[in-house]
Specification:
eight-stranded parallel barrel; Triosephosphate isomerase; disordered C terminus; Aldolase_TIM; TIM_sf; 268 residues; TIM Barrel; single chain
Length: 268
């Protein structure tokens, strides 16, 4: 079975429901400036609320940061008031779309089939879906982690062709670690990521090589150790992506873990 890709990491910031035009301008400018001298092999993205996609496009278009949305509709158009389609997101030059985040699954009752439909729509619009999977504390305590992850992941893989599935990014976000300030330890992360890699291989070698990100209280203090785990290809970063200094330090850690030459940038 192919192992994790060697080399460049992918770091995605998820602003969740935060932001405002003035504050965004300051943050985006600091991030655009702070990433300019980072190694070209490092990939960086920001997933912002829908109203700020135009601002992200305008301010990041000349930078090395890509941008995307935090969700999208399972429909391309129609009488779906309040929904935002994948083609609409793509109109703003977006690269990524998060689908199946635990907050969507929990607060909006999104099931595995709906998440799979959204991933398919994203791919059809030329977007890269970041498919989130993860277990709750209770599911972990009852040793249901692998069962839960398989159910969430298989719904997506079963819907897609091998070629489509090879265009995914997978993000493991243990629900119990998100926003808690307490990350999974490196051994736990390695075990789950290795399991996911092995499960992806059942769909094909190309699918086994897709990036698997870790998310769940990724901070500057733990980023290097997490990104140094062999099967971790980067991170999906929540709260720390709202702070330029923290997010840039996490990007620096990703570059260091990749083994690519980088320099720490002060004065963020």
């Amino acid at each position: 079975m192919p192992g994790s890709k060697v080399g460049a990491k992918l770091v995605i910031g998820n602003w969740k429901m935060h932001g405002g035009l003035r504050g965004n301008e300051v943050l985006l400018q600091k991030l655009a400036n702070g990433t300019r001298a980072m190694p070209p092999g490092l990939r960086i993205g920001l997933c912002v609320p829908y109203p700020y996609l135009a601002q992200a496009q305008a301010m990041l278009g000349a930078s090395r940061i890509e941008w995307g949305a935090q969700d999208l509709s399972a429909h391309d158009e129609g009488a779906y008031t309040g929904e935002v389609s994948a083609p609409m997101v793509a109109d703003f030059g977006a690269r990524y779309a998060i689908v199946g985040h635990s907050e969507r699954r929990e607060y909006h009752r999104e099931g595995a089939i709906l998440v799979a439909e959204k991933a398919e729509r994203a791919l059809a619009a030329g977007l890269t879906p970041i498919v989130c999977v993860g277990e709750t504390q209770e599911e972990r305590e009852f040793a249901f982690t692998e069962r839960v992850l398989c159910a969430q992941l298989d719904a997506v893989l079963d819907r897609l062709t091998v070629e489509q599935a090879a265009g995914l990014v997978l993000a493991y976000e243990p629900v119990w670690a998100i926003g808690s300030g307490s990350s999974a330890n490196c051994e736990e992360v390695q075990d789950v990521h290795a399991f996911l890699r092995h499960h992806l291989a059942r769909k094909g070698d190309a699918v086994a090589r897709i990036p698997i990100l870790y998310g769940g209280s990724v901070k500057p203090e733990n980023a290097l150790s997490l990104f140094s785990v062999p099967e971790v290809d980067g991170g999906l970063v929540g709260g720390a992506s709202l702070d330029a200094t923290q997010f840039l330090e996490i990007c620096d850690a990703a570059a260091a873990a990749s083994g690519i030459v980088h320099a720490h940038h002060g004065g963020y």
